[in-house]
Amino acid sequence: MIYWLKEPLFHFLLIGAGLFLLYGLQADDASGQPNRIVFTEADTDRIINLWERKWQRLPNQQELQGLIESQIREEVLYREALAMGLDKDDGVVRRRMAQKMEFISNDLASLAEPDDGQLRAYLDTHAEKFAIPGRITFSQVYLNADRRGEQVRANADKLLTELSHSSKDVDISTAGDPFMGGYRHENLADFGVSRLFGKAFCKRLFELPVGKWSGPVESGYGLHLVRIDSRTDSTTPSLQQVRDKVRDEWLVEQRHKANNALYSELRKRYEIIIERPASEPPKKISSK
């Protein structure tokens, strides 16, 4: 029980219940005077702030009166449209209203500010999201398997021996076959290696020894002889290094959970029936 009291989702549901109860009471009060429109002082402040943000100045009296009248006009037409049922069977209106419900849910979820314990647990569980990428500097000689055919691996082994025992610098651009991807890569991130050569090539590259020619390493292009000059492996940062990013991701997850929890609770109010062709009985779906 104590565990649930500490859960952000429990807090969301509790606040949400209060919010919808308050909304229901307000709706009941408003229904008693359907033809009354009250433009409050808060409404006036809101449109003044919007105007000031857009035009970098306060509206004059005439402009303010026009803004208020525009809002009243919109409210009158909105209420009349509802009375005529113009909101029914309108996909755009339906989606917009559904979005507004999710916005309410998102706002409530954002009220739950995580502590360092929650953020550290999230970081541990989703370490790959926040990992500092490994970086590598390497040279490579390419051997085209299509061009060399069955001899490609024997050619690679022979060339590897020559490169390993050479006492002078070798022109790697002419040692093997032409390669459009480049022969020298400086401080390339692991995801950059994966993008250029594939994930399997990248994984193998970060396992090779530094300072010597190795291989052949296979990619989608063919075979490569590789010399690693420097390498730093991927690491998981401390919470202090990525706290803001972890917090943002945590809040996104909480909003997602809150939206699902809200929908699950609201769905229980309805009996869902999906009509089938006349030859089949209607299908009733449990709201649980």
Please sum up the structure shown:
58% of the residues lie in helices and 13% in strands. With 288 residues, the protein is α+β, with helices and mostly antiparallel strands. Strand 5 and strand 6 form a beta hairpin.
Task: Describe what you observe in this structure.
The protein has helices at 2-6, 8-31, 41-55, 61-83, 91-110, 116-125, 127-130, 145-148, 152-165, 172-175, 190-197, 199-205, 239-267, and strands at residues 135-143, 184-189, 213-218, 223-232, 272-274, 283-285. The protein is an alpha+beta fold and 288 residues long. The chain has a domain at 133-232: Chitinase A, domain 3 (Roll), CATH 3.10.50. The chain has a 4-stranded antiparallel β-sheet with strand order 2-1-4-3. Strands 5-6 form a two-stranded antiparallel sheet. Helix 2 crosses helix 13 (239-267) and helix 6 (116-125) packs across helix 13 (239-267). The mean pLDDT is 81.
What name does CATH use for the topology of the domain at 133-232? Chitinase A, domain 3
Gross morphology is elongated
Q: What is the N-to-C succession of helices and strands?
A: HHHHHHHEHHHEHHEEHEE
What's the total helix number? Answer: 13
End-to-end Cα distance: 22 Å
Give structural attributes:
288 residues; alpha+beta; Chitinase A, domain 3; four-stranded antiparallel beta sheet; two-stranded antiparallel ribbon; 13 helices
Produce the secondary structure layout.
Elements: H1 2-6, H2 8-31, H3 41-55, H4 61-83, H5 91-110, H6 116-125, H7 127-130, E1 135-143, H8 145-148, H9 152-165, H10 172-175, E2 184-189, H11 190-197, H12 199-205, E3 213-218, E4 223-232, H13 239-267, E5 272-274, E6 283-285
Antiparallel strand pairs: 1-2, 1-4, 3-4, 5-6
Helix pairs in contact: 2-13, 5-13, 6-13, 11-12
